[in-house]
Structures are given as structure tokens and as C-alpha cells.
Amino acid sequence: MIFDKIFGKFILVGLINTFVGTAIMFGLYNLAGLGYWISSAANYTLTSILSFFLNKYFTFQAKNWSVFMVCAFALTIIVSYLLAYGIAKPLIYRILRNYNQKIRDNISLFLGMCLFTGINYLGQRFVAFRA
To answer: Which pLDDT score, from 0 to 100, does residue 82 have?
Structure first.
């Protein structure tokens, strides 16, 4: 079952990561003037470290450590990020082609966050931290 107690814990950890990551990503993009890819990559690089430990111990309660687990987690993050943001930006740019770049980028960053959450959950649950 996908929607169970583990899913609830994953969402709680995700809320914490989303709060921190949103501040990082939108702050870097809108306040620091960094680009789409740098702002979103900085977010996921920094919050992935927090996510690994929270999900390992709290969400999935994985007791063991292995090179496979760490590599699977990192690969899940990378694949989730590339898929989510690689889909979000062209999709939003196509749909909102008459809007300015800043609006399109902010909306695609938000959509990328949403897509990332779903893809990442599946990868962490069924690959990185599988029982």
C-alpha cells in the first residue's frame, strides 16, 4: 500500500524540507538573482542531506547503513530532480508562453517541487529505503 503511515511520515518530513527548501530556492532566484537551475539545484543539494537522515531514521526507520542505500538515495534525488524540473520548465513555458520569464520560472519552480515530491517518494520507498 502506498498511502499508509509511512506516507504520512514522508509528507511530514517533506513539509519540513519544503519550508527550508522553498526559502533557499525562491530566495536565491528572486533575491540573489541566481538562475533557475542553480537556485533549484542548491535547494535540493542542501535539503537532500536533511532528508536522508530524517527519512532514514524517522520515516522508513532503516537501521542498517550500506553503500547501496546511500547511492540509491542519491540516485533517487538526482533522477527525481532531473525529471521533475526537466518536465516542469518546458511545460510551463509552453502553457504560459505569453507571460514574462520571471513568472514562468516561479511557476515552473513550484510545479517542479510538486513533481519532485511524488517521484522522490516512490524512489525512496521502493528503492533507497525498501524493507
So the answer is: 96
